Amino acid sequence: MASIKFNIISKNNPSNLNIRFYHGRNIDCNAPSNILIDPKLWSNKMQNLKPLVDKETKDDYQTKINTLKNNIVRSFNEDYANGKIINSKWLKSVINDFYNRPTGEDDYRIFLIPFIEEYIKETEHRINPKTGKKISFRTIQKYKTTLKQIQDFENHQKAKFKITDVNLSFHKTFTAYLKLELKYSNTMIEKIISQLKAFVKGAKEKGYDYSIEIESNKFTFRRDETIETYLNESEITTIFNLDFSDNERLDNTRDLFIIGLRTGLRISDLKRINQFLFSNNVVVISATEKTGATVKIPLHPQVKEILKKRNSKLPKIISEQKFNDYIKEICLEAGFTQKILGNKRNPETNRKEKGYYPKYKLVSSHICRRSFATNLYGKIDDRTIMKVTSHKSVKQFHKYIRISDTEYVNRLAEYWENENELSNSKPQLKVSN
């Protein structure tokens, strides 16, 4: 049967009350309890404070001792059943857990960086319950990027942050560092802060201490206004009609580009195009890369023409980098040189800078998805478009819509014109005498 003894083994005042935990012949552990006491007040034989001690002091000590004792017994029952080695190191760890004391600066229950490292390590072997798949490599890379940014911040501050340090004061200092020192955009900072909150939420779910200030509506950051460009129907048709019969590279990319623009697929899905089922009227994507959703998309007439031209053979798959480079060439060939407002990465600073640039230079793979959603918006109901794009919320879907002020004006003018035509087409009633 397991036994726990509390003993004074020093004459110094105060002394650390020592704990001896033993069970059978093979388990005999010792560790300091971190309960300090005057040796004259404690009786090893009685396992209690001496009778001369006043009741208030005795009750205070006894509460601490009994609570710690119960915690040791509870931990032993759990750890022994799970095959853990029970020794003095184990006992010391249990006592540290009781006081929520770190075992060192690599204690992931206490310190932020070790926790994030442990979080990432667990994620690499975790299944996303929504998709039934392992967490994607890209998601883990995002985690590691945020980790590196926090590590750099620690070095900059010459500090070692605990999970509980992530509060509004931390938020203020960290966001200032990201904005003023690293010159990050507001959108990038918002993404980092959102990921940091997700890490701390993970610590909360494990029962680790955290600052409740992380849940404040002030613990966020305002994104920049999104100004990503898109291609309208007329521009897409211009690309479709380009003659690249003498350039296999651009002809292949243009066909792949049109399929992306007419299906709204992410580049991660477009690169798996050979896995999809194309029929005369529909393409079936069994499981999209990001959401795992099964999607059926009716084939646009331009996609049908491409398949017909290629004798039902699909375009060759190319890397995302090549795709981005080649579609810029295609859009330049299409004459999309008008300057528009957008964000373009500066190769010297490796930061996106807002400005007016030729439209073809702002084109990238994500334009497929934005163009698809924008061109259909207002023509058919949102839910139908969302079924194809796999958006889960209308709010999320509306972030993809990119309609210029001029086009809004033109749409309203067209609506008034149609209304006027309908009004004039109605039979005029004559007033009879």
From TrEMBL:
Domain Tyr recombinase: start-end pairs: 226-417
Residue stretches making up the Core-binding (CB) domain: 110-204
InterPro entries found in the cross-reference section: CB (IPR044068), DNA_brk_join_enz (IPR011010), Integrase-like_cat_sf (IPR013762), Integrase_catalytic (IPR002104), Integrase_recombinase_N (IPR010998), SAM-like_dom (IPR025269), Tyrosine_recombinase_XerCD (IPR050090)
Keywords: DNA integration, DNA recombination, DNA-binding
SUPFAM superfamilies, per database record: DNA breaking-rejoining enzymes
PANTHER family xrefs: PHAGE INTEGRASE-RELATED, PROPHAGE INTEGRASE INTD-RELATED
Similarity comment: Belongs to the 'phage' integrase family.
Record's protein name: Phage integrase SAM-like domain-containing protein
